[in-house]
Fold:
Amino acid sequence: MSSLVPLCEYCSQIPLDPKALDAESERVQTGRTWSLGDCVRIKNSSCPLCRLVLSHLYPGLTTAFTAEIKLRWTLGYVGRQAFVTYLARPETCIGFSSGMETADHPDPTSRFFLEPWTGPILETSRILRWISSCEQLHRSKCAMPTSIPFAEAYPGLNVLRFIDIEDSCIVERTGLEKYTALSYVWGGVSNFRLTKANRTALLMPGALNEVGGLLPHTITDAIMLTERLGCRYLWVDALCLLQNDTEDLELGVNVMDLVYERAWLTIIAACGHDANARLPGVQEGTRGGSKNTFEILPGVEMGIVTGLYGLLQNSVYSSRAWTLQEQFLSHRVLYFIGNKVFYSCRAAEHAEHLVDDLSQTSLDPIAGDTLPFDVLMSYPMLPLRTMLCSYTKRVLTNQNDTLRAMAGIIRRIGELMKCSFFEGLPTAILDLFIIFHPFPTVLYRRSAFPSYSWTGWRGSIDFEMPGNGDVDLNEWLRDQTWIIWYQRRPSGITSLVWDLDANPSFPLPDLQYVGYRHRRPFADGRHVPRQLDTRRTMPTEKVSFSREVPSYPMLQFWTISLFYRIFDIDVFRATGYLQDSNHKKCGFVWVDGFGETEFFESRGFFEIILLSETSEPISLANHWVQENHPYPLAAGQWKYYHIMILEWQGGIAERRGFGLLHQGAVEFSLPPGPSWKEIFLA
Structure:
């Protein structure tokens, strides 16, 4: 006799049979939905499906949460039909057990795709099947060329070191080898490392047998896994770069992106918080078996389908800056996280707890945060924005690595955009990437890098998209920007940041590529306050400063300078409002470095410069825009200016904030503005 608790009055209305569910959904284009009542009811229910749904919801929902919970039968994140609800934990859905499949061989496209059980030991043969299908079906997408010279594959390196698993030692190779690479978090573990003192000893066969007990568990697990996969070589930073040799480290770090990109397989240890977290399932005793499905009705088993991104987003691994490019540039990746194993290449995804579909040849772009790099690059500008937003949330131990840890991604995006990068900013669309603001945290200065770039600030950022992203960016660059950007090197030499003559590969006629083609001067179609002469855009060559110039290039350019008060500062969010000469609220600002400088306490008015135009305020600033605008709207749709707050020292300015200004406020600047002014921005 079954001891199952019967379904409640809500769940008993749902036909728990995929064929019946499909038939119901065909009647409704967006997918059939069923109400389960509110969260309080579900929490108090003993119904087995309600209990399953409850474990599917955000854990933070309280018993007082009264919103209606609905189940919808639709295409789940795994590309197969499943139940979803909008209050679910990220990348989870509810699916049917593969044990319900009546066919002799489970169909990977079937509605029964959730494996009922995951064993305690990882099935290496299954991983090899995933890789084999990739090698056979995805050669053009996932295979790296092997016929190029070593010097071209790893520029600047004389040798590439590996752990040689057969000879149990470190080896130095000058050819292109098949190898796995480990991506992991060091944490606070005392990590045995390759040094100048032990290098010679570790090159001797059998040397690693002598130090096996000193290696962190994650590395020993990676060695064992690599051996089981039939691969001889493993690359691990701690044992393949001389950790106390500055030159060797520099050379190795500069090609780190290529090391991961050219790996046969990258093993990502995303569980735990240090190098002893292990690779659960590789060795006995490192994880228990797990039941994935539960009986809901006699003969009906269902369970929570967990996605990779839902697990990754809160992991320590995803909080580290260096791991971003290690993950995205790798061609084949094996993830260990949450006692689960996932596989991803550039054309397929697999997971231990799902029935395999070895026929995959493409990935669904909706899985954006875990998609391999080249899958995202059909329109590279938006992924660049997304990656920079993600990257700036991450922890960087050495602040001087801020650009280096993104260098591989930036280099590849530059190739796809057909433009170079300048201090972390794409030169063909500098105006778009200079309008960043803190989100959701406050920004603090990183003094070794320029304040005009994201590299110059610690803290997470977001980028303003003109017109809320609804405008043609080539048209926006042509019509709503006017600054001609020059770089001024520490030597005093100036040159254009974007020079078409210096970028002959930029495809001018192809408007799929975003970049500067033609520019409108400021006075063309815009109101010029007090009839200022705004014609000059050429840089002043000979300039003397009363402070030391920075070691990085400055931006030198001409634009409108204005002065306003900043008032009503929110000391927790570091936001405030601009006030004009008539004491009208005229703008919204984020103030940078608030709390680490007295700049915002020491004066009554602040200089701001105009950067570009936008039709809609940034979403976070929506609350300051009133229906009764304090100024007549400007002609056309462009109502606001993006602005930057400046602080000057010794003739050189630095960014101290970003925001929006009503276009009508330019006539109501405090003295000494407005003026057409040359800016030297460090």
User: Anything to note?
Assistant: Residues 11-114 form one domain. The mean pLDDT is 91.
